[in-house]
Design a protein that fits this description.
The protein is mainly alpha-helical and 188 residues long. The protein contains eight helices and two strands. The protein folds into two domains: 71 residues, Orthogonal Bundle (Rna Polymerase Sigma Factor, Chain: A), CATH 1.10.1740; 86 residues, Orthogonal Bundle (Arc Repressor Mutant, subunit A). It is globular, with a radius of gyration of 18 Å.
Length: 188
């Protein structure tokens, strides 16, 4: 029992921050903390039965993905817009408020488009592009073959690009950073 507790403590310390960030991308900051706690409660309760057939991170992402999907399917779910601390603080080089507002608008627009993608494209994209997981691990998390993951990533990226081109007019600011001007009110 003591070894299980020590193993859980190490797992919690190592994986809570990335799992929490992952959940924030799905459900927003308000629900992410609670869901992350639920993930680690489930993991703690199942740790004795974990058979090491997958990496611990894969196992945790699978629990987190299922928890996020379950939460998003609830009728009272409404995702809040989340900005990371990096996105909301002014940078040390005195970035203008206007540039910061443009960056936030661009990020919000892109997140809105990602959120509007079908679940079968959105989840692999988030795992790959935002969490940095390799295709093999994504396949394990989602219980899919690696080929299916590759197809979904390819189609998801194509769909994302198509929707972004439809909704946004992209340009570069004076710092050569990409900015988005909405073509219509759908990208706000």
């Amino acid at each position: 029992m003591k070894n299980t507790f020590l193993a859980f403590e190490q797992i919690y310390q190592q994986f809570f921050p990335p799992i929490h960030r992952y959940l924030m991308r799905f459900v927003g900051q308000k629900d992410a903390e609670d869901l992350a706690q639920e993930v680690f409660i489930k993991a703690g309760q199942s740790l004795d039965s974990f058979r090491n057939e997958a990496q611990v991170s894969t196992w945790l992402y699978r629990i987190a993905t299922n928890a996020a999907i379950d939460r998003m399917r609830q009728p009272n779910f409404r995702r809040e817009t989340v900005f990371s601390q990096q996105e909301t603080e002014l940078s040390n080089d005195a970035m203008s408020l206007e540039n910061e507002a443009l960056r936030q608008a661009t990020n919000e627009c892109i997140r809105g488009v990602i959120d509007s993608l079908p679940e079968n494209y959105r989840v692999p994209l988030i795992l790959s592009e935002l969490q940095g997981l390799p295709n093999q691990q994504i396949a394990e998390v989602l219980g899919l073959s690696q080929d299916v993951v590759k197809v979904r990533l390819h189609r998801g990226k194509a769909r994302l690009k198509q929707e972004l081109q439809k909704r946004c007019q992209f340009s570069r600011d004076e710092r050569n950073e990409l900015t988005c001007d909405p073509k219509n009110s759908r990208c706000v």
